[in-house]
Amino acid sequence: MCAAILGMVVAAGAGAQGLKATTGGLSGATARAAIAQSNEPVTTDFIVAVVNNEPITNQEVRSRMRLVADQMARTGAPVPSREQLREQVLESVILEKAQLQLAKELNIRVDAAALDEAERTIARQNQLTVSQMHDRLKADGLDVTAFRDNLRKQIQLQRLRERELEARVKVTEPDIERFLQQKQDNPGSDLQIHLAQVLIAVPENVEPQKLAALMGKAQMVAEKARTGADFGALAREYSDAPDRAAGGSLGLRAADRLPVLFVNATRSHSAGGVAGPVRSPAGFHVLKVIDKRIAGMPEPVVTQTRARHILLRTTASLSEQDAVARLAEMRRRIAAGQADFAALAREVSQDSSAADGGNLGWVAPGVFVPEFEDVMNNLQPMELSAPVVSRFGVHLIQVLERRQVEMTAREQREQLRMLVREQKLDEAYQKWLEDIRMRAYVEMREPPQ
Fold this sequence. Notes:
Elements: H1 2-12, H2 29-38, E1 47-51, E2 54-57, H3 58-75, H4 82-105, H5 112-125, H6 130-139, H7 144-165, H8 173-185, E3 191-201, H9 208-226, H10 231-238, E4 249-254, H11 260-265, E5 274-280, E6 283-294, E7 301-312, H12 320-335, H13 341-348, E8 359-363, H14 370-377, E9 388-390, E10 393-406, H15 409-439, E11 442-444
Antiparallel strand pairs: 1-2, 1-11, 3-4, 3-6, 5-6, 7-8, 7-10, 9-10
Helix pairs in contact: 1-3, 2-3, 3-4, 4-7, 8-15
């Protein structure tokens, strides 16, 4: 649990500075061995680098190495060799120091209220109270003051990035058009295709007359598919492939995970198109494009959810634990048919939706905070959640129904604008880091041990 808690802070800091796993790195038990090595006692500390007159100590690097390696091992990511990890961590600490110095120059501060709220958010995401989170940290021998100090630094870094970069990045209509053109001209590994096939198998050393008959059968299937026959039914009736029971569906796959023959045959076809017959060593294939998309592009159809909730806000007189207990009892009564959800929402919910029985209306993905939406998305229609803690309080959620809705051209365009903005922000951030690193005076001393 503490690894998860610390991982949220590490990911916001060291991970964002360019730390990365490398091919052939460590994982599993080997990663834990690397962590253990970084835990070896050091009798004396010493300065390994100086950033604009501010020292970085060996202990500082070792401590960060331990957290980063632990986070990588916990998530299953391959950990670099000890030497690579030490080099990457030192560089990340140098960048962090330079950024924090700039934040100080720009008078970017984090007050106690903001720090407390950040702590509450991390605790909620780990299904803990702040007090319980502190107890877990202490039980693992970790200093709460040091944890809060590190969290304060990460908030400062985030505010610095927002101040320095948000205003710089503008997305124009030509930017969106260029993004679209690049995706269309060079889909590469981003291209995903959902194909279905009918395979007419051809035995080895088949006689010409038999081959012609099989070819004719494949052409007949292709003609039926092109004139509107149910492709799944055709596959179940005629296909010799193992996927015939699934209507010939190969599922949605990256283009580079499909046979080149299939990709080339369907290159000019959009969804609904039929290609073939095409010949492979296995026989003749008739292919139907079920879907074709480019990863990262907006989906033309989204799943909307209509849900309702009861919200209890925590106060000095209502603790989070008490709010959870109250909503758990309400859930029991509703499930037993002893109370009505809408009536309880109108009576006790502390949200603006209370007057409408807690009804939140139809919403698209991304509208609610993650801790609420993640639970909602996993509920079946009419299912009740357990009490859910979010940054707004404690909720009892019920999904009423779901529907598929085609996005308007304007909505798709807005999603494209957000994708382009994220891409430009990432590029600007990397360049900004390079500029900060170049402007910083860094003196390397004794290598970290």
